Amino acid sequence: MTNGASPGPEPGARHPGRRAAGLYVHVPFCVSRCAYCAFVTSTELHLIPRVMAAVRREVEALGRRGGRPLATLYLGGGTPSLLPAEELAGLFAVLDRRFPRLPGAEVTLEANPDDVTEARARAWAELGVTRVSVGTQTFSERGLALLGRRHTAAQASGAVRALQEAGLDVSVDLMLGLPGLGAAELDATLEELLRLRPGHVSVYLLETDKAHALARLAERRPDLFPDGDAAASQYLAAGRRLVAAGYRHYEISNFALPSRQARHNLRYWLRLPVLAAGVAAHGHAGRRRWANVDELSAYLDAVEGGRAPRAWSRRLTAPEEVKERVMLGLRLARGVSAATIAACSALVPAFAAGLEDFLSLDLARPVRSRVRLTPRGWLLSNELLNRLW
Ligand SMILES: C[S@@+](CC[C@H](N)C(=O)[O-])C[C@H]1O[C@@H](n2cnc3c(N)ncnc32)[C@H](O)[C@@H]1O
Ligand code: SF4
Predict the structure, then answer these.
(1) Is the CB of 214 under 6 A from ligand 2?
(2) What is the pLDDT of residues 341-377, one digit of tens each?
(3) pTM of the complete model
(4) If you take atom 3 of ligand 2, which residue's CA is the nearest one?
(5) Per CATH, the architecture of 21-269 is what?
C-alpha cells in the first residue's frame, strides 16, 4: 500500500475484508440542535430508553441473521456520548453477544466536548471503545457561539486531553467557511489543534444545501459568509499546515498521523462491507446497498412490530458499481486504478472529457498505474463527479 489508505489486514478474518464487516450504529439524540446540522437527530431525550431498546432489538435481529466478526464498530449520531452509562453498557452487551470483534478492532464513539470527563473517558475505554471522534468545529469562542455549540474552546481542548490521557485515539472535527471567521481565527484554531496533536483530523467546509439555520442565514445574508474562493483558500491553507505538521491528507476531508486513518470510514471509501443499525443508518455489502427509515416514529413502529426498519434495499448494476468505485476512490489520496478509470470513461464519455480537463489543469494526476485528484482537484471534484450520474 503506497499511502497507507487501507484498513489493513483484518486479523483472524479468513477472507480479509469479506467475511469480516464494519457496523455503524446511529444514536439519534442531541441535547440541542446546532445551527449548521441537518443530521437525523432528536432533542426528545425522554425517548432514549425506548429508542435504545429498539436499537438493541435490531442489533439482536441482525446478529441472528449471521453476525459477522467486526473489524470496526462506529457509534455515530447524533451524540452517542450523551448516553447514560447503563444505556451504553446495555448496547455493548448486545453487540458483544451478537458481533464478536476481531482482535485489534477499531471501536469509535462520537462525542461532544461537553460530555467528556476523565471518568467517562476511562469508562468508554473499559467498554472497548478505542477511538473517540470529538466534534470541536473551531477553537474560536465567537465561532462556537454562532454555531450554537454548548461548549467553550477550553472545554474542547480539555476533552481532547482527557481522552488522550485515557489512552484513546482521538479524532477532531473542524469546520471551515464559517460566517465572520477569517484567517486569524483559522490560524488560532490550527495552532491549538496542533498543540493537542490528535491522531486524526476531519476538516469539513460548511455545507449549506441542507435545511438548517446557517443555510437559511446564508440565503438571506450571503455577504456574511466567505465566498467560494475564500472558503477554498481556508481548506488549502489548513491542509498545507496539517501536512507540514506530519499529517497525511489521505482523503478529501481527512488527515491522519501515520497509521491513524479512520479504519471504519475507509471501509466506505474502499467498499468493504458495513452493516447498519438505527434510524437512518445506511449499510452496504458487495453490490447491495440499503438504508433504514429516517423518521424516528417509523423506525420505532417497525422494530417494535418485529419488522426490519428498512426504507429500501437494492443491488447496484455493474455500470453503477464502476461509477461508485470511481466516485468513492477519487476521494482518497491513493486514487483509482487506470483500469477502473478506463471502464468508467467508456461508460460515461462526459466523465472522460471532464477528467481530461482535470489532468490538463493539474487538478488530477496520473501516478504509476493510478489516477488521483490533487487538493485543488478535490475542491472542484463535484464538477467532475456530477457527470457520472
Ligand atoms: C454527526 S456530526 C458530530 C457528532 C457530534 N454530535 C458533535 O456534534 O460533535 C459529525 C460532523 O459533521 C460535521 N457537520 C455537520 N453539519 C455540517 C455541515 N452543515 N457542513 C459541514 N460539516 C458538517 C461536523 O463537523 C460534525 O462534527
Ligand atoms: S452537530 Fe452534533 S450535537 Fe450538533 S446537532 Fe448535529 S449531531 Fe447534534
Answers:
(1) no
(2) 999 999 999 999 999 999 999 999 999 999 999 999 9
(3) 0.94
(4) 30
(5) Alpha-Beta Horseshoe (3.80)
